[in-house]
């Protein structure tokens, strides 16, 4: 073999400072590879566009296992609120199912996206990893022995490899494959809110997902009487985030109150208790078809840039963390070309299985499928959903009240060599 094919990776450019980028940088650092994170926005709490761009998200047990592999799980535990189970309800208030991961796994955590960005960046910085902010990537040149990145401020950066962790509208993805299709509007606008004080009882760690008569509503009421909620509101005409925000929180709260007026769930009360300044108008939900390639030459993709997941999967941040850690293992043990092939071999089957599982569950119950379209479920669809959902959660891989262990129990064997 020539030196060119056997050379190991010593340096990396990580494009994107949201979730996948800092995790990848920390994993590379642990693997002995010098990594620098380049972030387009000037601040840590930037509104990074991605499928999971809502104000809040959950970090599943498998995501925490990935962070455990690089000694970073405490970052999530320190800022996250425990979610012990998911409760599914009809718009009538009827209990449909309750799902929980196996008890031996880490507890799912609800986190605010901005806080997670800040916590991961702070932990990476504490480990000595450089962050360059205000660095919007324009293009990159693969020389065969390295990559040179060019940014909008005229600066250049060079390293052995370049990793695209730049989200749903990834610039790196377009450099790897210019023919990659663009994200498209999924027919929903997303809103998230923090309610300072409610008169409702605590949900005791359960996050409830309600298939409303006109829209999907998820909520959790904490022991201190505060609450968080998220809405996926069907909206036929596409709107940008800026256009949605221009409507204003007061008007959106009025429209949301009308949307849930018939629902016999906590949705009407929680919307009514929300102060306009506590409503996050996070804008359109978008989808992305699977990519044929994640890598080319000395460039590769992780996170939403590589495998965007539907919001209903609850796995976006967790899968991104898994991919970041596995990529670092591969680059630690193999030359870049072989490392990227090994990385895709490790990740594609799992990512594809979770995507198929999410789609199958949605289709089987009819409910989640309806939440992904502009048209809400009609009376017949709602009746079928409410009848089938309890059975689907028992026989569709959930094992009764235990939520698919194969999905959530996925430790990464960091110390094992990648061949």
From TrEMBL:
Keywords: Monooxygenase, Oxidoreductase. Residues 12-356 form the FAD-binding domain. InterPro entries: FAD-bd, FAD-dep_Monooxygenase_BioMet, FAD/NAD-bd_sf. It holds the Pfam family FAD_binding_3. Gene3D superfamilies: FAD/NAD(P)-binding domain. This is FAD-dependent oxidoreductase. It comes from Streptomyces longisporoflavus.
